[in-house]
Amino acid sequence: MVRMNVLWIFAHPEGRSLSGALRDEGLRALSELGHQARVSDLYAMRWNPVVEAADFGHDPAERLVVSAASQRAHTAGELSEDIRAEQEKIAWADALIVQFPLWWYGMPAILKGWFDRVFVKGFAYGVTDPSGRTLRYGDGRLAGKRAMVLLTAGAREPSLGPRGINGQVDQLLFPLQHGTLWYSGASVLPPLVVPGADRVSAEEFRAHAGRLRERLASLPTAEPLPFRRQNGGDYDEDLVLRPHLAPGRTGLAVHYAPGT
């Protein structure tokens, strides 16, 4: 069996919550499977989610251009210590588990700030090959790594479906799964969603914990979401899907390969 290094990114303010119990169950499962795990518990770490000049050793008297300053600092090894520590964890990891509650149709601000500060230019974007071609959407720094979202939501399952008032989960998670993780090169596994999280009974928790264990057991081998690769020929020079692919269709679904 493949042994993996797994970085578990946890963004919930209460460790005694359902989310905390699922995290603990998942970490036990990883250990039993022979995987190594590290945890970034963002609230416990008191993670600073605010991008600022000090992240890059930038003179606050000078105008801050975040992309340029972050790339310079990354290249020179001058990013702030907390950012470098998280990047080192990512470099160590074969897989990322990104766990958070769905708040206002998105992730908690502390987790968004983790991505804002850690996924800097030169590390997670702005990466090129020797010819100068930009590596993103299936290529890049996270290529070869796997990622899975573990999401808890207060809404019940039907309302998160195709005709539900809360919208489809795959569309709610598209900015993270496609626009962040896949953009940076990671193969993104289907998310594990725990609906009705505010009303979970002991029996339901055991069922959710069992689903989590099954998903973690298949972490090395599960089929990822079939997002189209930017450099695979499906997009033109303006990064628009070519007319013969998904003809007559628009929207997020066209960025999945056929058969999905």
From TrEMBL:
Entry superkingdom: Bacteria
Keyword Oxidoreductase: yes
Sequence ranges assigned to domain Flavodoxin-like fold in this UniProt record: 4-216
InterPro entries in UniProt: Flavodoxin_fold (IPR003680), Flavoprotein-like_sf (IPR029039), NAD(P)H_dehydrogenase_qn (IPR051545)
Membership in a protein family: Belongs to the NAD(P)H dehydrogenase (quinone) family.
Organism: Streptomyces sparsogenes DSM 40356
UniProt protein name: NAD(P)H dehydrogenase (Quinone)
One of the record's GO cellular component terms: cytosol
Keywords per UniProt: Oxidoreductase
GO molecular function: NAD(P)H dehydrogenase (quinone) activity
